[in-house]
Amino acid sequence: MKSKMLLVAITMLFITSCNTVNKEDSKIIEGEIVHTVYFWLNSPDNLVEVALFEKEIKKLMNTNNLAVKMHLGKPASTTKRGVVDNSYNYCMIFTFPSLKHQRIYQDHPSHLIFIDKAKHLWKKVQVYDSTTEPI
Fold first, then answer.
1. For residues 109 and 118, what is the distance between their CA atoms, to the nearest angstrom?
2. Confidence tier at 118 by pLDDT (50, 70, 90)
3. Rounded CA separation 109/60 (Å)
4. CB 41, CB 50: distance < 8 Å
5. 128: closest CA among 33, 30, 24?
């Protein structure tokens, strides 16, 4: 009887430990809304303009308290394929905990200041917003 109880206890411990997902170990992006923005700069070879753009976008990222997670990147040197568009100069991703937070961000002073100070540096901006689906 003791061995059956021990076996049940070990089995229960194993099952509960397998069902516990550590948030740090999750592969799922945190945030209900994923806000992805691509920028094509007017003069991507002009180091002064690039430095100004980077200064302003990093200021936006550092003063934004609405996003859950952030990413700033440039096109990766991945294999060229017909489905890959790496014609942009910068990609910024914010994740928001809710649609409400994303809407507030659109009118937030840090976002409006960024647009005002940097809009003359880009020729095109493309935004893709998506909502999280259960996996």
1. 14
2. very high
3. 9
4. yes
5. 33
Contacts of 122 (CB under 8 A, 6+ apart): 39, 40, 41, 42, 53
- Out of 3.30.390.50, 3.40.50.300, 3.30.70.100, 3.30.565.10, which CATH number does the structure's domain 29-77+85-130 have? 3.30.70.100
pTM of the model: 0.79
The SS3 of residue 66 is coil
- Distance separating alpha carbons of residues 14 and 105, to the nearest angstrom: 43
pLDDT per position as a tens digit, 10-45: 444 444 444 454 556 678 888 999 999 999 999 999
Q: What pLDDT, on a 0 to 100 scale, did the predictor assign at position 132?
A: 87
